[in-house]
């Protein structure tokens, strides 16, 4: 009798705690989206921002965020993939491996503002890249690398050792076993991890303030030559992202409609990150079905 | 008559051997898992390795095609034709093409049934479409799986039942046309019907292949094998033809083991 009552009590308590977590999330999302949604329009999403007058948009910031994200992923993905394949498939347990793991953990626990300042000193000042998309992408790579490495490593680890033995027992080399059997089997969870980390990169501000800069110079969307200064593809131009823009207009915005722009921008940011999360689940499941069903 | 501590049947010179081990010692760190396992494994026969858990039979089996590299320390000689497999010069990948292995849990790749078989063939340089298709059909027939899967070769191998998946793993191994098949408790995860099918498959396969099988299922060893080696605490204590091992064991420990008397 007593055990039953305790069990009921504990179950109720756990439900309440879980409910509180969900409630906090819903409140936060609801608040941001309800405030921001009325500001959203096609012109808000596509026109440049204005510093002094009302009616500006977030077009350039949105583009910058996406471009920066793509560059960051292009740089960090191969490195993280290589590192995680090494750690999970090749590294023998021992001192060196444990030192590498510890370093990755430390790197992942660095506050992003520290990563930003480090990026400022190294990429912006020392390498002379100045405030630029490239500096920002490199700083974000430092920020993203440990998390991505960890998530790919977990994806590889979740593939049963039976698969590795199966490949080796057929006389297939270790490298081919890893790249042709283990990696494809892990692709669904690798993609999920990739998209989730993309969400984090997309929303990052602190690491970018001192690297990608806080200004969004006008872009000529008809000019796709990456070497021209007004080209959207030029990686050497300063590029304020959406998250940095929100931070900036809230701290020093002087346009008359700054709170409306900030609410709208925040809603866009949240919605994009939400889309990333849902995509991660959906694409992961789809890929798993596709890859395991044969061609 | 169970008077001996150890009984190893000797073959005369006319019997062709698939594998011969000499002075084999296998260590996990300081622990010696195999200390005395000089065995001659005859060609085109089924040899069963039996013994209690921890007796070293799986360790022994996995060392035969070097699947224990990086796991255990293997000392001694493993002779295959005129090659010592346990030497540095051996190309383990080429060797495993001749000495295949099937594991306890069925481990089909997350690919289609067809690709499960062609994958290793392509890696070994067989790319002719016609030959690949032929090998798929032949190996699936030899593994007694063809009739069940011939209409769904492009479906995922993960959808197969445990017994079918295990026969696919056998087909995958014999598609490489190896000399020797090593099987590590291949039926322990299967139901009785699948087990019976698997046993029938193995008996048919011995026309073309030498089979070494580790099993905990003593009736299975008695049913399908020609020779039986009994492992106990890292030593082969009895090796004889299966009929005699089960009807007239020469070593008391073997008699105790097969009659279930461990007291």
UniProtKB/TrEMBL annotation, chain A:
Residues annotated as domain ABC transmembrane type-1: 62-280
Membrane topology qualifier: Multi-pass membrane protein
A single GO BP: phosphate ion transmembrane transport
Molecular function as annotated in GO: phosphate transmembrane transporter activity
Subcellular location: Cell membrane
Spans traversing the lipid bilayer: 12-34, 66-87, 99-123, 129-148, 181-202, 260-280
PROSITE patterns noted in UniProt: ABC_TM1
Keyword field: Cell membrane, Membrane, Transmembrane, Transmembrane helix, Transport
Gene3D superfamilies reported in the protein's UniProt record: MetI-like
InterPro entries associated with the record: MetI-like (IPR000515), MetI-like_sf (IPR035906), Phosphate_PstA (IPR005672)
GO cellular component, one term: plasma membrane
PANTHER family listed in its UniProt record: ABC TRANSPORTER PERMEASE PROTEIN YQGI-RELATED, PHOSPHATE TRANSPORT SYSTEM PERMEASE PROTEIN PSTA-RELATED
Homology family: Belongs to the binding-protein-dependent transport system permease family. CysTW subfamily.
Name of the protein described by the UniProt record: Phosphate transport system permease protein PstA
Automatic annotation (TrEMBL), chain B:
Pfam families, alphabetized: ABC_tran
Species whose genome carries this gene: Secundilactobacillus malefermentans
GO molecular function: ATP binding; ATP hydrolysis activity; phosphate transmembrane transporter activity
Name of this chain's protein: ABC transporter domain-containing protein
Sorted UniProt keywords: ATP-binding, Cell membrane, Membrane, Nucleotide-binding, Phosphate transport, Translocase, Transport
Gene3D superfamilies: P-loop containing nucleotide triphosphate hydrolases
Cited NCBIfam families: 3a0107s01c2 (TIGR00972)
UniProt xrefs under InterPro entries: AAA+_ATPase, ABC_transporter-like_ATP-bd, ABC_transporter-like_CS, P-loop_NTPase, PstB-like
Location of the ABC transporter domain: 19-258
Listed GO CC annotations: membrane
GO-annotated biological processes: phosphate ion transmembrane transport
């Amino acid at each position: 009798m007593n055990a039953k009552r305790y069990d009921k009590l504990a179950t109720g308590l756990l439900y309440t705690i879980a409910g509180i977590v969900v409630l906090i999330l819903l409140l936060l999302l609801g608040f941001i989206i309800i405030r921001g949604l009325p500001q959203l329009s096609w012109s808000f999403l596509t026109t440049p921002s204005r510093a002094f007058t009302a009616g500006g948009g977030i077009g350039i910031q949105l583009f910058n965020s996406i471009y920066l994200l793509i560059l960051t992923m292009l740089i960090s993905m191969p490195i993280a993939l290589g590192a995680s394949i090494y750690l999970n498939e090749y590294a023998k347990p021992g001192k060196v491996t444990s030192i590498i793991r510890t370093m990755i953990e430390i790197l992942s626990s660095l506050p992003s503002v520290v990563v930003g300042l480090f990026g400022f000193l190294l990429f912006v000042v020392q390498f002379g890249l100045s405030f630029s998309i490239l500096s920002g992408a490199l700083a974000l790579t430092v920020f993203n690398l440990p998390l991505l490495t960890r998530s790919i490593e977990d994806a590889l680890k979740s593939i049963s050792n039976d698969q590795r033995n199966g490949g080796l027992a057929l006389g297939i080399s270790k490298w081919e076993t890893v790249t042709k059997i283990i990696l494809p089997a892990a692709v669904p969870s690798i993609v999920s991890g990739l998209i989730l980390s993309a969400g984090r990169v997309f929303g990052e501000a602190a690491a970018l303030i001192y690297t990608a800069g806080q200004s969004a110079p006008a872009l000529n969307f008809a000019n796709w030559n990456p070497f021209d200064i007004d080209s959207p593809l030029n990686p050497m131009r300063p590029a304020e992202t959406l998250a940095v823009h929100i931070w900036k207009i809230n701290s020093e915005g002087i346009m008359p409609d700054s709170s409306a722009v900030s609410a709208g921008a925040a809603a866009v940011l949240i919605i994009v990150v939400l889309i990333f999360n849902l995509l991660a689940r959906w694409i992961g499941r789809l890929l798993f079905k596709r890859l395991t069903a044969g061609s | 008559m169970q008077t001996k501590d150890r009984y190893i049947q000797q073959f005369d010179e006319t019997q062709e051997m698939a594998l011969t081990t000499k002075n084999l010692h296998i260590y996990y760190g300081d622990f010696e898992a195999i200390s005395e396992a000089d065995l001659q494994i005859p060609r085109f026969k089924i040899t069963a390795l039996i013994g209690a858990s921890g007796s070293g039979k799986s360790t022994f089996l996995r060392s035969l095609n070097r699947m224990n590299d990086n796991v255990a320390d293997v000392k001694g000689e493993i002779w295959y034709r005129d090659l010592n497999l346990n030497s540095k010069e051996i190309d383990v990948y080429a060797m495993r093409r001749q000495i295949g292995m099937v594991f306890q849990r069925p481990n089909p790749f997350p690919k289609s049934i067809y690709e499960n078989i062609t994958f290793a063939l392509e890696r070994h340089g067989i790319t002719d479409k016609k030959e690949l298709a032929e090998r798929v059909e032949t190996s699936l027939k030899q593994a007694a799986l063809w009739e069940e899967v011939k209409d769904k070769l492009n479906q995922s191998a993960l959808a197969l039942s445990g017994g079918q998946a295990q026969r696919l793993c056998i087909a995958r191994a014999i598609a490489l046309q190896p000399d020797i098949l090593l099987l590590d408790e291949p039926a322990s995860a299967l139901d009785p019907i699948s087990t019976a099918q698997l046993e029938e498959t193995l008996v048919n396969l011995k026309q073309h292949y030498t089979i070494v099988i580790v099993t905990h299922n003593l009736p299975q060893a008695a049913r399908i094998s020609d020779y039986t080696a009994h492992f106990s605490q890292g030593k082969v204590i009895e090796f004889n033809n299966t009929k005699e091992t089960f009807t007239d064991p020469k070593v008391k420990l073997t008699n105790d083991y097969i009659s279930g008397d461990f007291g």
